[in-house]
Specification:
43% of the residues lie in helices and 12% in strands. The chain is α/β, with parallel strands linked by helices and 481 residues long. The strands form four sheets. It has a six-stranded parallel β-sheet with strand order 3-2-1-4-5-6, with helices on both faces. It has a six-stranded parallel β-sheet with strand order 13-12-11-14-15-16. A two-stranded parallel ribbon has the order 7-8. Uridine-5'-diphosphate-xylopyranose binds next to α9.
């Protein structure tokens, strides 16, 4: 099999499918990327991937190329894994990479093959790809299928080898059989580990929609809890406790209910916009109008950090927002989430840039994302280390929940900072420990001054705000119904 496009998605898939035992060829137009992969270097941060890449290169199951002719000749199943970024100046998806990948490949095909789309695309794309194939590889028996991926950065190897489900849109038995053969390795691994991987075989439109619907749901869940955070901030509630309390209901569940600076990355923000744009084209714009609100709630979280910083530092308001002239701020985190070096649409980096634009002296530190952050925001100052960022800062903003920040010793950091003032933009720090070490701590989604008396607010022993547990009666009261 081949993987056309060896960015984050394609490279991970190529390596993992070689690991499953398939003969794999990875293609990309980017010569430097192909050279790096061939030399055993993963050009992005993904735990565990380098080792698998090197092992499979050495085993001879995995190669990389920049030649469409070689790719067409090599594969029976070709996975299209190119990017579908937000269109410049619009909200829809830019399909130009899909178009050039499919036409480039199709023009070189000489025998029946299956082209499987993996890229996240607007519904209707698979049919359009079929028409492209019919035009550029007529009469060869080349067919199309669509199989969305659900991998999360930072745990992508696991997500490919042990997926939560396999979804495939196919139009013929032959295509179904080839897709099945291409996923045998995953199903056999699951069987060996006594697991089941559900397989949903469906039509093109449903397969395409599954991906954007899943991302829309996840984005909505995050914005829901961030909307609750906004209410908690004015009502004096605590969103972290609220999330835990509602999350105990299995119908709601406790995952993706972490309030903070909101979602970023290369998928959720652009996917919910592209989904709305496509629904509008199809005449169902009304149905997805709520996703606009999801986006707005998410954007407001970034502004909230600036507002809170201004309030804590006593900075004056200006016509375009608060003015931070002269304030020294440490921003901890640049990536859109931990265990990734991806800074695309990262709340942390955007907030750092906004603080700097408003006059603050900002120093950013991130354990893995500094090179990408420096490319995206060359005007920002970057610190060598966590300590270097915090030294002499009047305010510390923790905006990505890296373990290095969560486990840092607040007493030691307190001695480095000029003022022990911290905004926990991910509600990820041990508030009690930081407060005990002398820090003035502010999470997002609470108004600490208004909290009810300690002892009556704590839900249980590991209350993240560190308050004492609720006094328990000696005998259990009979539940009143
Ligand atoms: C997402 C989907 O999870 C994945 O299935 C899809 O294939 C691609 O898009 P990813 O972009 O890697 O994956 O990130 P994810 O782990 O979903 O996190 C997205 C953003 O939401 C991050 O910025 C994260 O910090 C934020 N987030 C997540 C929250 O703010 N709160 C939460 O509770 C969970």
């Amino acid at each position: 099999m081949t993987f056309v496009g060896t960015g984050y998605l394609g490279a991970t898939y190529a390596v993992c499918f070689a690991e499953l035992g398939y003969e794999v060829l990875g293609f990309d137009v980017d010569v430097a990327r192909i050279a790096a992969l061939t030399a055993g270097t993963v050009p992005f941060h993904e735990p565990g991937l380098t080792e698998l890449l090197r092992r499979n290169l050495a085993a001879g199951r995995l190669r990389f190329t920049t030649s469409y002719a070689e790719t067409a000749d090599f594969g029976d199943v070709h996975f299209v894994c190119v990017g579908t970024p937000q269109r410049p100046g619009g909200t829809g998806a830019d399909l130009s990479y899909v178009e050039s990948a499919v036409t480039g490949l199709a023009a070189h095909l000489t025998r029946p093959a299956l082209i499987v789309g993996k890229s996240t695309v607007p519904v209707g794309t698979a049919e359009w790809v079929e028409r492209l194939v019919a035009k550029h590889a007529p009469g060869l028996g080349v067919q199309v299928a669509w199989s969305p991926e659900f991998l999360q950065e930072g745990r992508a190897v696991q997500d490919v080898l042990r997926p939560s489900r396999i979804v495939v849109g196919v139009r013929s038995e032959w295509a179904g059989a080839l897709v099945d053969a291409a996923h045998r390795g995953i199903l056999e691994l699951a069987a060996a580990e006594d697991r089941e991987v559900p397989v949903v075989v469906t039509d093109f439109a449903t397969a395409e929609l599954v991906k954007v619907a899943a991302n829309a749901f996840l984005a909505t869940k995050i914005s829901f809890i961030n909307a609750m955070a906004e209410v908690c901030e004015v009502a004096g509630g605590d969103v972290t406790q609220l999330a835990r309390a509602i999350g105990y209901d299995p119908r709601i569940g406790n995952r993706f209910l972490q309030a903070g600076v909101g979602f970023g990355g290369g998928c959720l923000p652009k996917d919910i916009r592209a989904f709305q744009a496509r629904a509008q084209e199809l005449g169902a714009g009304e149905a997805l109008r709520f996703l606009h609100e999801v986006d707005l709630i998410n954007q407001r979280r970034r502004g909230k950090v600036l507002q809170l910083a201004a309030e804590l530092l006593g900075c004056p308001p200006g016509p375009g927002g608060p003015q931070f002239a002269g304030a020294r701020v440490a921003v901890l985190g640049a990536t859109f989430k931990p265990h990734s070096d991806d800074v695309r649409d990262a709340p942390a980096l955007q907030i750092a840039a906004a603080l700097a634009r408003a006059g603050a002296g900002v120093r950013v530190y991130d354990p893995a994302g500094m090179a990408n952050a420096a490319l995206a925001q060359p005007g920002l100052r970057f610190a060598e280390s966590l300590d270097d960022a915090v030294r002499d800062a009047e305010l510390v903003c923790v905006l990505t929940e890296w373990p290095e920040f969560r486990t840092a010793d607040p007493a030691r950091l307190g001695r480095l900072a000029a003022t022990p003032l911290v905004i926990d933009g991910r509600n990820c720090l041990d508030a009690a420990a930081w407060t005990a070490a002398g820090w003035r701590y502010r999470g997002l989604g609470s108004r600490p001054a208004d909290r009810a008396p300690a002892g009556w607010t704590a839900l249980d022993q590991d209350d993240p705000a560190g308050r004492p547990p609720l006094p328990r009666p000696a005998t259990r009261p009979v539940a009143a119904r």
